[in-house]
Amino acid sequence: MKNNPTNSEKCIKRNEKCIKRSEKVNKLLTQLELGTKELFNSEKYKNYLTTFSKFTKYSINNTILIYLQNPEATLVAGYKAWETKFKRHVKQGEQGITILAPMKYKKDPDDDESESLILYRPVTVFDISQTEGEELPSFSPVSVVKDVDGYQKLFTALAKTTDYKIEFAALAKDTCKGTCNFTTHTITIREGMSESENLSTLIHEIAHSMLHGNKYNSRNQAEVEAESVAFVVSTFLGLDTSDYSFPYIVGWEENDESLLRHSLKRIRDAAHVLITQIEEELNKDDLITNNITKDNSNNNNNSKAVQGMQLF
Predict the structure, then answer these.
(1) For the chain, how many structural domains are there in total?
(2) Residues 123 and 150 occupy one common structural domain
(3) Which residues does the chain have with pLDDT short of 70?
(4) Residue 253 has what DSSP assignment?
(5) Do 35 and 67 meet the contact criterion of CB atoms below 8 Å apart?
(6) 67 in a structural domain
(7) Are residues 151 and 276 in the same domain?
(8) What is the pLDDT of residues 111-130, one digit of tens each?
(9) Does residue 88 sit in the same domain as residue 131?
(10) CA–CA dist 28, 65 (Å, integer)
C-alpha cells in the first residue's frame, strides 16, 4: 500500500526546494555583481554592448548574465519554447544559460487577500546555436546598410525618430563630430565626414537629446551613455563599429557599480526605443516601395493602371 506524504513532509520538501532555489539565485546574483564590476574594463564593456545589442528587450541583469555565460549568444529561448514555438530542439549534452525570471508569490497561499510579492527564480534558456530543426527567418533587421548601402534610407529613418532639427556645418575637427543644442532643439553634424561617421554621430546626438537635456550627473557619464547607445544601435543595424572605444569607462566615477547599472538601464531603454522606431520607419518605407513596385509591374502588363494604389 502506497503511503501518501503528510502535510509536514510536503512542507519540508517545499522548504528544501525553496532553499535550493534561493542558493541558486544567490549564486547568480554574486556572478552578476562580479560581472558588473568587470564591465569597467574598457574592452569587456565593448564586448558586453555587442551582446547587449542583440537583447535590448531583456532586463539589464539578464543581459549581463547572458553575456557572462555565452558572449556569442544571438537568440535565446527555453527548452519547451524552442520545440513548441520554433519547431527546433536542444541538442543533446548542451549546457543552458541561467537567467532570472520574476514570479508572483503570496505571503499566505491560503489567503486570497494576502499581499503579493515579486520573487525571482532561476530558469534555463538555450541559444539558437545549441538547437537544431526548422530554419528560422533571418533576424538581421537591416541588411541594406552593409557597407552603408541604403545610407539615405537609414539616415531619413533616423531623422524621423527625433523632433530635433538636423543640420550639417563646419565644426572644428579637433573638438567634436557633432553637437546637440537642447535650447534650440538642433543637432549639428560636422561636414565632410564619411557616411558611417554621419550615421553614428547622428545616433549619438539623438541619444543625448533623449537622455540628457540640461541634466546629468557629469559630462563623462553623459558621453558614456550617448556613445554606448550609438554603439548598441549601430551594431544592431550592422554598421561598422571598429572605431568605437570606451577609454573613459575605466575608473569612471570611481568604479561606481550602482551608477553604471543605472546608466545601463538608461542605455537599454534609449537603444530599445530607437531600434523600434527605426524598424517601424524602415518597414513603412519597404511597404511603400513594394506597393510601388507591384503597381509598376501591373502597368507594364497593361493591367489596371491604378491597381494597388488604394493601399497608400
Answers:
(1) 2
(2) no
(3) 1-21, 106-111, 137-148, 173-175, 214-217, 247-255, 285-312
(4) G
(5) yes
(6) no
(7) yes
(8) 677 777 777 888 999 999 99
(9) yes
(10) 8
CB hemisphere CA count around 123 (13 angstroms): 15
Domain extent for 180: 143-289
Q: Which amino acid is at 271?
A: A
Cβ neighbours for 278, distance < 8 A, ≥ 6 positions apart: 142, 154, 157, 158, 161, 233, 237
Q: What is residue 148's predicted lDDT score, i.e. its pLDDT?
A: 67
Q: Do residues 150 and 280 both lie within one domain?
A: yes
Instruction: Write down which residue in 85, 100, 135 finishes a domain.
Output: 135
Q: How far is CA 241 from CA 50, 175, 197, 237, 306, in A?
A: 10, 20, 10, 10, 44
Report the C-alpha gap between 199 and 168 in whole angstroms: 12
Render pLDDT for 42-93 as a digit per residue (tens, 0 to 9).
778 888 888 888 887 788 889 989 999 998 998 899 999 999 988 999 999 9
The contacts of residue 41 (CB under 8 Å, 6+ apart) are 249, 250
Cell numbers linked to 185: 532643439
Q: What is the pTM of this model?
A: 0.72
Smallest CA-to-CA distance from 37 within 250, 263, 226 is with: 250
